Hints:
Layout: H1 7-30, H2 39-54, H3 61-77, H4 81-99, H5 104-117, H6 123-126, H7 130-139, H8 157-189, H9 194-213, H10 217-234, H11 242-263, H12 277-291, H13 324-340, H14 347-379, E1 380-382, H15 384-401, E2 405-410, E3 415-417, H16 418-439, H17 443-448, E4 455-464, E5 467-474, H18 481-490, H19 502-505, H20 529-539, E6 543-549, E7 553-561, E8 571-574, E9 579-580
Helix pairs in contact: 1-2, 1-4, 2-3, 3-4, 4-5, 8-9, 8-11, 8-15, 9-10, 10-11, 11-12, 13-14, 15-16, 16-20
Amino acid sequence: MSDGMPAETLRDEVLSITSAFRIALIPLEKNEADTIPRGPVVDAGRSLHGCFTEHRVEALTPYSEALERMTRVWDAQGGPVDSLATAVGIIEQALDGLLDSVSAERLSPLYETLRSACPPAWQPYLDSDSATFDARLRSAPEAVASPNSDAATPERPEQAFQRELRAAFTTEADEGFAVCEELLVQLEQRPDDHDILDALFRKFHTLKGAAAAVDLPEAAAQLHGGESLLQAVREATAVVDGVALVDFLLRLTDSVRGLIDQGCGRPESPYAVIADVAQEIAALRRTGSSAAPADPPRRSPVGSPEFPTPTRDATGADAAPADPATSDSQLRTLTELRGQLGPGEGGGEIRQVIDALDRQARQFWDLASDLKAQVSSLASVALEGTFRRLQRPVRDAARHAGKLVTLDVSGGEIRVDHAITERLYAPLLHLVRNAVSHGIETPGVRERHGKSRTGSVRVRAALREGDLVLVVEDDGAGLDIAAIRAKATSLGWVDPQHVPTRAELIPLIFRAGFSTQADVTELAGRGVGMDVVAREIEALDGVIDVESRDGSGTRIRLSIPLNTGDASTVRIVPGDATRTVSDMPRRRSG
């Protein structure tokens, strides 16, 4: 080496490239189909050769040149993937020897080993000069597609890159739209809060730029329309009814989601795409202008809403990450070996090998420790994202039922395993919707009972003795025990001659098909929601505790062990009585 780069720095740079090389090989080792992109492998081979060339590692340049040619021939003609993996391993061994001051002459057998790993059909390409190699490659027949592959053309590097960009953008957009929804339901309650308008404007602007960057022009155009509308409202050049504005922007975020799904090749999107955003914005602005007085007083740029809503909120295929404890044991073994090695013929060379292995093992132990910590961190997510996704459903359910409801959440900073948060969303969604549909009274009824016209739904999270505890509570009318008894009797779930206790009746609300609502609507009446709650909490080995106070509301407590295991039942605890789903009375036939 002649550029003065420290040995450890060069080692780290090379190992980062070879690690990326191996990671790119993993899916190819599992599946030889041409639908799997080959570009990352070719790029890694080119990067490794460029690294040795740039840093003038002349002793290893023939190795990296051979690997680069092997990847290009493999990309063009196909061939065994294990030859590439073997070549990478040989280059790593040669690098270790070079950095341990082993002469290039003594390393030459490794180069011959690398060449022998090359399939015979590739050998002529390694022996050619650059011009001949390029000419051979251009005239060579293309790789034959796998008989199980439907794709005629393999994905090129730029296509893979664009796909990866869009996948990353989709994740970013999902988070961004969740923030937008939270801000919109806040704006509906506080239309004079310019901070909310500013935050919405910035979020739309950011999402617009990101959509344009990943070549989704239709999505970017619709976001631009929403951004322009928000700017006009901020600057008071347009007066728009608050409820209409929030409704439109919520539909607009769904429309952009639909366009993103289309752009990412997901035609079965659940989101409706707005055909003409500009026309709808123009109509929205005309409606707002016609409703405004000729000489309007100073006021908020957003009209006050009728129904306010919530305020708040590697390296080898299938190889498991190494256990640092195991690596530590291996380090101790190497140390003992070194101590046991006595003087004699070949002792110096063997000691060099053990020293090299020692250094590699220590480096691997450090990397494995860091990786384990990073994986543990990545596997957990804050509950805040799940809570944020509840804001819009509560707002929509309240408006649909003609009620005034706020959603308050706490404990969103608690981090739990990603798989748990994904399973918790559906139960929480059904619980908050149920609280709005069945628990919270209409404003007039609440007023007659001396309550605030606006009902409250609260979701709280806490950690208790190894359990995640979630509480969903409302200040509504409480469970209608008489209606539950009547419905259960009509379904044949209780004996008409028997007067069931309150503790016997409450678990029935978690049975499939049970609902006390007479009319089926988009949000309630089918008897599905609470059954989903029971089944999902059952899958998490959890416990459901239900407390209901007539005229004061209902409190449902979910306790989820963070070391979840298999479970066949979920405990439902109504007050001081405990029953399981399997114990619940079944509907009698006949």
